[in-house]
Amino acid sequence: MAGPRFLVVDDASFIRDLLKKTLRNQFHNCTVSDASSAKKAQSLMNTQSFDMILSDWEMPEISGEEFLRWVREQDAFKDIPFIMVSSRGERDFVIKAVQAGVTDYIGKPFTPEDLVQKITRSFKKVGKEELVKSALRSNNDAFGGAFSSAGALGAKMISTNDESAPKNDAASDAPSA
C-alpha cells in the first residue's frame, strides 16, 4: 500500500534534508519530493500529485505565504493539507498564515514527535487520517529507537541553529522515495 506523498519546500537544504529524513523514518512507504523554492514547487505540483505540503515561510522570490495563497487559489490543490514550517512563530505571522489558508503551523525548532502530531492532525482535518494511520511507524521503530520513551531524554530537537547540521549541500529538487 502506498504511503503519503509529501512535498517539502525550503530554501535551506539542511532543513529539507532533516524534514525528508524525519518523514521517511516516521511513515512507511511515503514519497518525499522537495524543492528549494516555491517556483520549483509549483513546477513539481504541475507534474506530480501530493497529499501534503510542508513549506518554509521565508524564501526568496515567492514567500511561503504567497505560495500558500497560490495553492489555495488552484482548484486542483486547494484541499491539500499545508503545514507552514517557520522560525517566525510570532502571533502576527501565525495569524497571517491562518488567514492565507494554512492547515497548521509549526515553529522551528521542533521535535519529530511535534511534526508527526501536526501531520496527523492536518490529515484528520481533511478526512484523510487513514492514509497517515496506516503508514505511521510504531513508536519503537520510528527513529531506530532514538525517540522511544527511553531515548527521548537525549533526543535533539530539529533546529535551524544546530551547528552540527550540514550547511551547504547541493539543492535537490528532484523527487526521492
Let me know the average pLDDT. Answer: 80
Helical residues, percent: 25-40%
What is the CA-based Rg, rounded?
15 Å
Order of helices and strands: EHEHEHEHEHH
Largest sheet: 5 strands, parallel
Number of strand segments: 5
Low-confidence stretches: 139-177
Strand content: 5-15%
Strand order of the largest sheet: 2-1-3-4-5
Gap from first CA to last CA: 14 Å
Number of distinct helices: 6
- Overall SS class: alpha/beta
Describe what this molecule looks like in 3D.
With 177 residues, this protein is an alpha/beta fold. The chain is built from six helices and five strands, in the order βαβαβαβαβαα. Helix 5 runs antiparallel to helix 6. The C terminus is likely disordered.
Q: Could you provide a short overview of the structure?
A:
With 177 residues, the protein is α/β, with parallel strands linked by helices. The chain has helices at residues 13-26, 38-45, 64-73, 91-100, 112-125, 129-135; strands spanning 5-9, 31-35, 52-56, 82-86, 104-107.
Features:
177 residues; alpha/beta; 5-stranded parallel β-sheet; 6 helices; 5 strands; 36% helix; disordered C terminus
List the helices and strands and how they pair.
Elements: E1 5-9, H1 13-26, E2 31-35, H2 38-45, E3 52-56, H3 64-73, E4 82-86, H4 91-100, E5 104-107, H5 112-125, H6 129-135
Parallel strand pairs: 1-2, 1-3, 3-4, 4-5
